[in-house]
Amino acid sequence: MTMNRRDFLKVTAGTSGGLVISLSLPGCAGIQTGYDQNSGDWKPDAWLELTTDDKVYFTLARVEMGQGTYTGLTTLIAEELEVAPAAIQPRFAPVAPEYRNPLYKLQLTGGSTSMATSWQPLRIAGASARIMLIRAAASVWEVSPEDCRAADGRVVHPNGNESLSYGRLVELAAKQKVPGDPVLKPREEWKYIGRNRGRLDAEAKSTGAPIYGIDVELDGMVYAVVTRPPRYGARLRSFDDSEARKLPGVLDVFEIERGVAVVADKYWRARKAQDVLTIEWDNSDALSLSNDEVFSSYHKAADEDPGESERSEGDYGDAVESAERLVDASYEQPYLAHATLEPMNATAWYRNNGIEVWAPTQAPDLGRIAAARVTDLSPDDVTIHTTFLGGGFGRRLTNDYIEEASAVAFRVGKPVKLIWSREEDTRHDLYRPAMLHRMQASVSGDQVTGWHHQIVGPQILDWYVRNAAPAQYPWAPKYLYNTLGRVGLMAEGIATPKDHSAIEGAIEYPYRVPNLDIRHTHTDPGVPVSWWRSVGFSHNGFAVETFMDELASELGQDPYQFRRSLIDHEPRHLEVLDRAVRLAQWDDPAPEGRARGIALFRSFGTYVAQVVEASVEAGEIRVHKVVCAVDCGQVVNPDIVRDQIEGGVIFGLTAALYGNITFRNGQVEQSNFHDYPLMRHDQRPEVVVDIVDSEAAPTGVGEPGVPPVIPALGNALFALTGKRQRRLPLKAQV
Amino acid sequence: MAVRLTVNGKKQTVEVESDTPLLWVVRDELGLKGTKFGCGKGLCGACTVHLNGQPVRSCSTPVEMAEGGDVITIEGLTTDGDLHPLQLAWVEHGVPQCGYCQSGQIMSAAHLLQHNESPSREDIVAAVSGNLCRCGTYSRIVAAVESVVESRVGQSSHGEA
Prior knowledge:
- The complex is a heterodimer of chains A (734) and B (161).
- With 734 residues, chain A is of the alpha+beta class.
- Chain A has three domains: 192 residues, Aldehyde oxidase/xanthine dehydrogenase, molybdopterin binding domain (Aldehyde Oxidoreductase, domain 4); 148 residues, Aldehyde Oxidoreductase, domain 4, CATH 3.30.365.10; 294 residues, Aldehyde oxidase/xanthine dehydrogenase, molybdopterin binding domain (Aldehyde Oxidoreductase, domain 4), CATH 3.30.365.10.
- Chain A contains 19 helices and 27 strands.
- Chain B has two domains: 74 residues, Beta-grasp domain (Ubiquitin-like (UB roll), Roll); 76 residues, [2Fe-2S]-binding domain (DNA polymerase, domain 1).
- Chain B has 161 residues and is an alpha+beta fold.
- The model of chain B has no long low-confidence stretch (mean pLDDT 95).
- Chain B has a five-stranded mixed beta sheet with strand order 2-1-5-3-4, sandwiched between helices.
- Chain B is 40% helix and 14% strand.
- In chain B, a hairpin with a 2-residue loop joins β1 and β2.
- Classes of the chains: A alpha+beta (734), B alpha+beta (161).
- Chains A and B meet through α5, α7 and α18 of A and α2, α3, α4, α5 and α6 of B.
- Chain B: One of its GO terms (molecular function) is 2 iron, 2 sulfur cluster binding.
């Protein structure tokens, strides 16, 4: 199609529409391009929208919880579209099949998958739009598209002088054929990928802009708080709200599935009314365990059941038979809370037979199921507006707070904001599972001939399927939700997907040991569990890399040389290991009173080696320095890779030094930051991050910084004291 | 009770119960959402504001204790759309990750800079050590504050020259 300039101006004058480029992720329904001549409406199954007034909107299908998707994914679009990242306005996606994470078939952000799953599709989306805009301009100028180029939101004429802004071209561009397989820009032409620094959301987050779920404000909004049973599994027997109802501002008090809700005109009034409720719980089905029982039940299960084989190579039995000696160790790791700094909250409004929810959630499609499950509504009647998240770390993959807010809003008929207190957040979390690891190695001479790892603990999916399974089948009638959850109808039809949450990081054991026997004994004490930053890698990293250290010590070898000799067949492992050691000056003695420990661990496709330098001062563990070498493939934003690895180190050290959720008679004993402490400014070590320059496809960085730092610190303490740390959190004196 | 406050230079009267934490007055009565709720016990620092020139934990400061007082919140650091030097440094250094704690971090640092022309690293760390960050942005916070201190020192020596 060609068009002269006068026709072109006629077409573009007075329109306000946008060019909508839509690409389908693998497994989703057909490619659509949407341009509404009349309304110019934005269509929700799209990433990109360009308007006649030169605005570029990018629909972000992965939430921003600090990990940098808002900047990183926008950079991918910017690169191919030829628009500066800062000129693009990202907005959070509504729930739609196109926005599902292709790895999970759910619209969720987790597993350090955002960059890896967006790397190709988003660049293709940007390139397709750019090509269509160039073709549109070429048709106006009656020149060959190959002779035109795009730069800074404009198409430039072959003469180099004239140009047309994208906004002028959108309507014509929408009429161009969608390129089937656009050629992406070669690496050497990148302007933003690998170069762009800083964060697009830094200003909003430095000026107190109201961007989080807890900041949502609606006309006529009221506040809710919920009292939940102190022991998991308890049910409400009765409650007396007569005192609460006398207090000013209290609007209603009623039972919901998860407890007793108080609704008041102000948050503080709701809290004060909550304090004077008298509630009796029926504890007949309640959790009653105490902490020692968790681990005694694990040991019992491990004795009775060798577990399912998850990886077997060679013949471990033979290795044991012919071994000169066996080395054994077992490790215990506690439950951990997520402790996002923004407590759980959601705002819900029921009206016109539908419910709108504003919430910081990592899984908005599961939020729809959660809201539908506790109301008369179907998932299609539920609209989720995702906000910025004040931390996620896996906690907000579970939408129990959306469930509660929806149940209250459904009854109240006004916009309701539900806010959890910190104590509620700590005591009603879904925890990183407590785990037991039994390790054994067969040794002959100076060779490790066999590796046995028995992982003992629960599987997370058992706790997650109730809302996750129906989210994949939103058309399923609600009476089937629990059935779907129970039978684990997830992902591809009838087959239950393999839950790797207990075994990941153990079954990928990378060292060259000929006989491997890796098993999982599935046992569940009944404490609700969920994904927690780095998930199974968080505990398996400690088990594998602590035992590797024990073996090095047993064989009288240097912990670095020992690992190196067993991993020289894995170049990417080897590279980060060598780099970390070089940077940490491993071969030089540590400063007086300090010692170093090392760990090497791959998680979420990213290779990380860390060297920790630590001491014990005045009876307390002091971490001085952490050197990290990282290979995460192609780096999109070097600042964000650095801050994610550094943040992962602080998160891991917090778990290593303080993290401990304990139970007494079924109740969580911790409540707030005085008894569930986080690492503070004055405790933080110096963190050095060295990133391998790589052209491999990018892998995640949100989680891989966490797992190795925990064993690396334990190994440093062993080097310092000669005493092995086999139980977390670590102690100054074992 | 009716409580009179001056918040970010503006005189306000709010009708609330006297034990209402200043945090909820600022957030819900005055609509200034930049001050965050983190723990409710003065343990995390996300709710830090300045009351009569001192940094306080607004989550555990009953509003009656602020009666007649002068309150500055994170929104009050920005004047006529111009960001405070600390806010500029926060953007420049890409400090925030999830960002939720950053208002409190900045308010603690702002108080330090008001009272100490050229704080040392130890002074900076001491001033913000009561502010928790779950994302672990600590090193960038210190770097951002130091950059403001350095530019100040640069300016004053330039002025003297």
